[in-house]
Fold these 2 entries.
Entry 1:
Amino acid sequence: MSTIAKAMKLLDFFSLERPEIGLSDFHRLAGRDKATTFRHLTALESVGLLEQNPTTRAYRIGPAVLRLAHLREITLPRRAGLRLALPRLAEATGETAHASLLDSDGLTTLAHHESQQHSARVVIHESRLPLHATASGIAVLASGGTDLMARARAVLPAYTETTARSPEELEAAVDRARKTGFAISNQTFEDGVTGFAAPLFDSGGVTGAVAVAAVSSRVTADLQRTILTELRKAAETISTNWGGSIPPALLSAWDANADISETKT
């Protein structure tokens, strides 16, 4: 891994639960010696990608990220394409809808919308979603290439007892998603949460996923049919908004499996 890549990789450790990270914690999280970690942090700070809290001296995301994010959204509008589709998906299913964008080794959550129909609902905390352990990731892998699958197979950390722990388990889950057009992950990333996802496309091919995160105890055959029906509508709408289209093979899979009623992991 190049020096630049190693430095940039430090940004992945930030999350909503961990908005600030000190040097010692970075040293532990990255598994690098302190001098090297400090050098990488200093480089990121020098270009505005990081800044230090003047009180705690912990690092946080810097102002340059805002400029880059704004430029990205203006030139390649992604969130704008989700603005109506996610609320519609959440209200139609009564569960939490979210969409994510594919990056080098996983998915980044772009937006989410929580239905108000139930007091108990899934709250999206994670901004990063692993390919092998989430319905979103499996949906993307099912429409992606061999290089993407190789990256997902390389490291398979377990999040729950039902997370895919071997390349064979992962490939079986991807094959199911490829045949049906949808990925269904029963508590593979978070206990008590069942995920349903469909891939999203732009002009260059598969680029992310739209998903519903449902409270597992509420998932019935009827609810699952509703979720998959609404997911298809959302995937088609968002892909069109992003300048893409659903591949014929995926449309055929959806048509052939329009009445899936059995929850599968």
Note: The CA atoms of residues 41 and 139 lie 35 Å apart.
Entry 2:
Amino acid sequence: MQIRLASYNIRKCLGMDRRRLPARTLDVVNALSADVIALQEVDRRLAPRPFALPPELIAAETQLRPVAIAPNPESLGWHGQSILLRRGLHALAVDRIDLPSLEPRGAIAVEIAGDDGLPFRVVTVHLALMRHWRRRQLAALRARLDTAAPMPTMILGDFNEWSGRGGMEPLAEAFRVHAPGRSYPATQPMGRLDRVALSQGVHLLGAGVLDTPLARVASDHLPVWADVRLEPVVA
């Protein structure tokens, strides 16, 4: 089974031109041609955290649909994160994972399968700005995943890690972390903040950054993508 994953911090649909244009955000999303997209900053910051990316616009403008994650009808996600699936993929289970931090942070793990495909798990994260907290968050996430049913697992999101050599230690041995390319800031990308971590049973075929004129203005992050091949995990 081969799928395309993507991760995109949409900055609440606020572009580098200070215009909030959800339709423009979805133009970038569509350009990814992904099967599964992990989104960060989909909701406004203050309670009740109303969505910045309208669900009805997603339905009208894409072949994707959001997983039912939000704890209230005003939001699209949880801790500002959501996962979109192409039609034909279905969410079997959703696990909201609280992560330690000075400010509220969390991860979302979704078990997914197609009509006749191999079940797999996608986790979306938006980690803290300080490495001390990022390491604690990754350790908490790893502990939770270690107790979950074995299946191909992919962690996607804004890892907020500038270094290419440190910070990912809690994922060692169980995951291989890939930084597809420079994704931040969008106007002049320098940092590889947006990453993909792959478990046993997930083989990376290719990865990259969607760097287009539209993507450079639609958010402060460029989206990243990864093509992977899945095979069953031996328990």
Note: The chain has four helices and twelve strands.
